[in-house]
Fold this protein.
Amino acid sequence: MLRNAAKLALAIAVVVSGSPAVLADGTLILARPTAIQTLVPVPVNTLTMPWRRAVYDSLVVWQDGGPKPGLAASWSMSADNRTLKLQLQNNVKFHDGATLDAARVIASLEWAADPKNGANGAAMFAGATFAAPDSSTVVISFALATPQALSVLVQVPIVDPTIDLATTENGTGPFKLQEFLPGVSLRLEKNDDYWGMLSDEGISAFEVRALPDQAAAMAALTSGQVDGLALPASGQIPTLKDAGINIMQQEAPGNFELFVNASSEKLADKRVRQALSLAVRRDLFASRMGGGVSTPTCSIFPKGSAVYELAADENCSFDLEKAKSLLAEAGYASGLQLSMIVSSTQTPEWAEYAPLLKEDLASIGVELSIEEIEPSVRTQRMFAGEFELTGGFYGGGIFDPAVLFADRTFAPANLVSRFTEPAYAEMVARAQAELDPALRLNQYKELNLYMIDQAFIIPVASRPYIYALTPQVKGFAFDPFGLADVTGVSVAR
């Protein structure tokens, strides 16, 4: 613990002093303003996106707009979308030298299927069974039609569940653990026994370094003390561009949204939630907090989705008088008190917007208290339902629409908003089971409009994934899930 604290203090001192750092040749260093406290590679979020794909492979990767072979060399799906057969790559080794086989893949998938582990796709695996006809074949039999299976498997790392995943790793990826100092840094070294392609001219080491806040991370990047900033706050983009930093972004796979805890007595009435939606200044959020790379929206699914509804945005409005009227109808004519948890390092855009939201809510009789908390505490309270309002963002909205509902945030048994209307679960199940493509898309469009009306998750503005890199970094890539790919990276010092 003392060693970690000393290293963090040194890192802060270097950034504050502005002293030039001598970066090692062959090493890529990304900064993050949120400390990595655990090596558990799930769920996909801003803490795991920068390094997860370097350490862990998945059965499927997303490339050129569709699923491509990862640890699975090939696959076939049954006509009813309920049975997926995967043929594994040959000669794949874990970092400890063990051979990848069907039994190890199934052990990893069973770990991911356990909701307590927090893996993306746990909802999709509910009721599924796994079989290994031979050592190189895995068969997944789903309880329901699961046309989104390949998209979700992109987000499911193949791990060794027999180890302590919080403190060490045993993946099959192109880099392996060299040193992990919780809260300080994660350093990886090139895996010379990697089964896939690695450039001989690429980096030999990769480090993700924690810095105390967004300002320190910005200072480290613009002064050349690190090579990149992973997933910077959108509002920082203009400043970074002015400093000559390259901005890499993709079409927004999801949106910034306001999570509303529907299990709270004060927020159980949808009219209260709708009033909150009417009190959000989406244009202001997109222009100021979005840094010019965001657009306002009221649609759950982003514009890149096949089930995006233009009508949702055409009818999107900021209307404090209507919001006040809805509150009165719900029995709150004299107002009410609500609270919001934020983290300026984990969700900086929402921490910045919260005081502005407070002002608008005050004009309709809602007294909003804002509580700034540590990222880990915020995450814990979110999934324990110990909050009323919080802001965040989600991805996965541009793939098969069923992908969204495989996430624990949107699944019928959603762990954040805790919206439990039976109609919601029925609509999700019906859309997923529909085999006719046209009917299926229409059902997801209806789901989009239903969720907007129920307002337990309130979309605000599009949120592209962004990495900021110095001009010396070449070959960096990331997928639409935000997972960085450093297999082709070189750094010219």
